[in-house]
Amino acid sequence: MLAESDLRGVVGACVTPVTEACEIDLQRLKSHMEFMLEGGCSFVSEFGTTGEGASFSTRQKVEALRALAEAGMDMKRHIPGVVASALDEAAGMLSAIAEVGARAALVIPPYYYAPSSRGAVADFYEAMIERADSPDIEIVLYNFPHFSGVTFDVPQVEVMLERFGKRIVGIKDSTGSFSEGLKLIEAFPQLSIFTGDDRILPDMVAAGGAGMIGGMTNPYPADTVQLYTGPVTDALRARAKARIEAVDGYGGTVVLKALVSELRNDDAFRRTLPPLSPASAAVMERVHAAAVEQPVAS
């Protein structure tokens, strides 16, 4: 990671509050982003995996981005997600991210039809950029093969850099593997390499990583930031491990939304878009029993 780059720290992968009409709840979204930024996050990232980005239309997401900008949010502290397999949808999102002046775009590869080659992955990104009229926006590659089926390993990233050069500024590695993250850090010192996993965040940073883009920032921003800045105690590591394993084990995003609902004392945060269903009281009892204490507002 380049020493002069600002693209580092903890990036809050924000859940997306929704209304009863299945629209984005802009007031709650803005409020929750401000909570994470005030809790020490360097940036926030909306409409990624944690933000149910694949469930909202580009229209909904673009309208929300413009509304956040108009409401006075500093969009240079936003790294919105582009989660779309349709070329036109991805291009429309990229264009809007540039339009509002966001810091960068976090772009996942197309995730339905499997690319035929490493070059085909780059072809999608190239076509997206061209269709968006080549906006002046930097890109963070989203490495989440569990959902996309595409792995941004060293050879694939080399293809992307050869094609796009300095437009590629970072990678979010959501594999949860320290060894794979370390390969990216060592191969690409010019890029900001983020993990998505609290458990390996301190080790990634010590090895030269840029920080984390992750969902545990929603209920626990201060603890996640401490994993980045230190001091990192055994107790903090154990707490982070218990939390992420409980959240992932009992539903992921829906559990995070329920934890935020408890934190904010606002049942509206529990709402999800179909096909996701809100976490039940019984599920949340099991989550808390698995050493995830009730979040406390700071």
How far apart are the termini? 32 Å
Spatial order of the strands in the main sheet? 2-1-8-7-6-5-4-3
Radius of gyration, whole Å: 18 Å
SSE run: EHEHEHEHEHHEHEHEHHHH
Protein described:
This protein is of the alpha/beta class. The chain has a single domain (9-231), classed as TIM Barrel (Alpha-Beta Barrel). Helices cover 44% and strands 11% of the residues. The chain is built from 12 helices and 8 strands. The protein has an 8-stranded parallel β-sheet with strand order 2-1-8-7-6-5-4-3. It is globular and about 50 Å long. It starts with 8 loop residues before the first strand and ends in a 9-residue tail after the last helix.
Concise account of the structure shown:
The protein has 298 residues and is an alpha/beta fold. It is 44% helix and 11% strand.
Question: Could you outline the blueprint of secondary structure elements for this entry?
Answer:
Layout lengths: L8 E5 L12 H13 L4 E3 L12 H13 L10 E2 L4 H13 L5 E3 L10 H14 L7 E5 L1 H4 L5 H11 L3 E6 L4 H10 L4 E4 L5 H6 L4 E4 L6 H9 L4 H16 L3 H12 L16 H9 L9
Parallel strand pairs: 1-2, 1-8, 3-4, 4-5, 5-6, 6-7, 7-8
